[in-house]
C-alpha cells in the first residue's frame, strides 16, 4: 500500500495538475521573487521546505506594504533582511521603489532617512545585474552616497527621483554596464562617464545651473535627452546611431528677449551663457556621428542656434527631424544643418500648434544657399496644423533651393472646433460637476 503523500502526487500527475509545492526549488525561488521583501519572508511560515527560500531569491524587491507605518520600521526590517540573506546566493536584480509620503512619520526626515545608499551598495556587492531605485520625497530628493559603484556584473542601472553626485556617476568600475537611465531627480555632478554604456536615457532630470555637466560615453549607441537646468556638454560619441534631444522652457540656456544668446541687456540673467568650457559646440559635436537625429526645442532656448556657429559634419546622418527653432530669415539654420549633412535622405519639419509663440520667417526672394546643398534629399515632411500660414513660406524657400514640390509631403492635423460657452456650461451641468 502506497503512502498517502505518494498517492496524492500520483493522483495529481494522472489528472494533469501540478501543485506549486511540486515545483523545483529554482522555480520556487523565482515565485518568491515576485513578492515584496516582507511578503517573501512571510513565506517561511508555509512549510519546512519554504523556510529558507526567501534567503536566496534572485530578485530583491524593497517596497512598502501594509506592514510598515514608518521609514524607521522599514529601515530596521531591511537591515535584518540583508544580514540574514544567503551571502553565497547570487542576486540577479534589486528594485527599491517607494514614496516616503506613504509613511506616517516621514514628517521628521532628519531622524527617519531611508537607508537607500546601504541597500544600493548591498545589491552591488551581491553581483546584481539590474538595479532600479525610485524614491519619492515631497520636499527634496533623497541624496545617494557620493561613492563610486564597482561591479563586474551590473548591466542595467535605473535611478529615479533621487539626487546624484560626482563619484556615483563615475562608472569606470562597472565594465559591463550597458543601459543607464536617469528619470526625474537631480544630477549634481560635473561629469558622467562610462566607457561601456550603450544606451543612455535622461528623462526629466535636472542639472546644476552654475556649470555644465560633461557626458563622456564613447561607446553610446542611443541617446534620449530631456532635462531642466543647464544644458550638458556632450563629448565624442563615434558609435552613436539614434539620438533625440528636446530642450523645453525649463532649460537654463534661454532668453525671454531674443531667440539668440545675447539680447544686449546687461541686466538680463537669461543671457548669462556659461563660458567656463570655452567656445565650441555643447550638443551638436557629440551628436555628429548619429544616423537618425531629432532636435526639438522651445523657441527661446538658443542652444541649437548657438551651436551652429561651430557646426560639425554629420557624415552618417540620413534622417533628421527639427521643429521651429530653424525658422529664422530664409531658414538659415536649417540650411546650415543640411550643408553639413551630405547624405541626409529624409527631413521632417515639425511645426507647433501655436505659431504665434515662434519666430516667423521673413519673406524674401533670395535663396539661402545654393541648390546643390539639398540634392540628396529624397523626401521632406512638414507636420503642421491645418491652416498654418507658415507652410507657404517654407514651400517657397525649399523650392527656391532645388527641392521639387513632388518630394514634399504636407501632413496636416485638423483643428478641433472650439465649443461655445453655452455648450460647455450645458456639458458641465449634465455631468453634475
Automatic annotation (TrEMBL):
Q: Which organism is this entry from? A: Oryza glaberrima
Q: Which InterPro entries match?
A: F-box-like_dom_sf, F-box_AtFBL13-like, F-box_dom, F-box_SCFL_complex_component
Pfam families per record: F-box
- Secretion signal: which residues? none
**Cited PROSITE patterns:** FBOX
What is the protein's name according to its record? F-box domain-containing protein
Query: Where does the record place the F-box domain?
Result: 17-71
Q: Which gene encodes it?
A: LOC127755386
Amino acid at each position: 500500500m502506497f503512502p498517502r503523500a505518494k498517492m496524492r502526487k500520483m493522483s495529481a500527475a494522472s489528472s494533469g495538475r501540478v501543485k506549486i509545492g511540486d515545483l523545483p526549488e529554482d522555480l520556487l525561488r523565482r515565485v518568491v521573487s515576485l513578492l515584496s521583501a516582507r511578503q517573501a519572508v512571510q513565506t517561511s511560515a508555509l512549510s519546512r521546505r519554504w523556510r529558507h527560500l526567501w534567503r536566496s531569491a534572485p530578485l530583491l524587491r524593497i517596497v512598502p506594504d501594509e506592514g510598515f507605518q514608518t521609514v524607521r520600521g522599514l529601515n530596521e526590517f531591511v537591515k535584518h533582511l540583508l544580514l540574514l540573506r544567503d551571502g553565497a546566493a547570487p542576486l540577479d536584480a534589486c528594485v527599491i521603489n517607494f514614496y516616503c509620503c506613504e509613511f506616517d512619520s516621514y514628517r521628521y526626515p532628519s531622524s527617519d532617512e531611508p537607508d537607500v545608499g546601504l541597500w544600493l551598495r548591498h545589491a552591488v556587492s551581491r553581483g546584481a545585474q539590474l538595479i532600479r531605485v525610485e524614491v519619492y520625497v515631497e520636499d527634496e530628493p533623497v541624496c545617494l552616497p557620493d561613492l563610486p559603484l564597482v561591479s563586474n556584473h551590473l548591466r542595467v542601472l535605473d535611478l529615479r527621483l533621487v539626487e546624484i553626485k560626482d563619484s556615483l556617476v563615475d562608472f569606470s568600475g562597472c565594465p559591463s554596464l550597458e543601459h543607464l537611465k536617469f528619470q526625474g531627480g537631480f544630477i549634481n555632478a560635473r561629469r558622467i562617464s562610462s566607457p561601456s554604456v550603450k544606451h543612455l536615457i535622461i528623462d526629466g532630470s535636472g542639472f546644476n545651473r552654475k556649470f555644465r555637466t560633461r557626458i563622456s560615453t564613447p561607446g553610446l549607441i542611443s541617446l534620449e535627452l530631456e532635462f531642466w537646468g543647464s544644458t550638458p556638454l556632450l563629448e565624442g560619441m563615434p558609435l552613436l546611431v539614434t539620438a533625440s534631444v528636446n530642450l523645453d522652457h525649463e532649460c537654463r540656456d534661454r532668453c525671454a528677449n531674443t531667440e539668440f544668446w545675447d539680447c544686449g541687456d546687461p541686466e538680463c540673467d537669461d543671457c548669462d551663457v556659461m563660458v567656463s568650457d570655452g567656445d565650441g559646440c555643447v550638443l551638436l559635436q557629440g551628436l555628429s556621428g548619429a544616423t537618425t537625429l531629432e532636435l526639438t526645442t522651445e523657441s527661446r532656448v538658443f542652444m541649437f542656434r548657438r551651436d551652429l556657429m561651430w557646426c560639425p559634419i554629420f557624415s552618417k546622418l540620413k534622417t533628421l527631424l527639427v521643429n521651429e527653432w530653424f525658422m529664422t530669415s530664409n531658414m538659415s539654420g536649417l540650411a546650415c544643418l543640411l550643408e553639413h549633412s551630405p547624405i541626409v535622405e529624409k527631413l521632417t519639419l515639425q511645426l507647433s500648434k501655436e505659431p504665434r509663440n515662434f519666430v516667423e520667417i521673413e519673406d524674401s526672394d533670395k535663396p539661402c544657399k545654393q541648390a546643390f546643398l539639398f540634392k540628396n534629399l529624397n523626401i521632406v515632411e512638414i507636420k503642421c496644423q491645418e491652416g498654418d500660414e507658415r507652410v507657404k513660406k517654407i514651400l517657397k524657400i525649399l523650392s527656391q533651393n532645388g527641392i521639387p514640390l513632388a518630394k514634399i509631403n504636407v501632413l496636416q492635423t485638423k483643428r478641433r472646433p472650439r465649443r461655445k460657452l453655452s455648450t460647455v456650461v450645458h456639458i458641465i451641468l449634465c455631468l453634475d460637476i
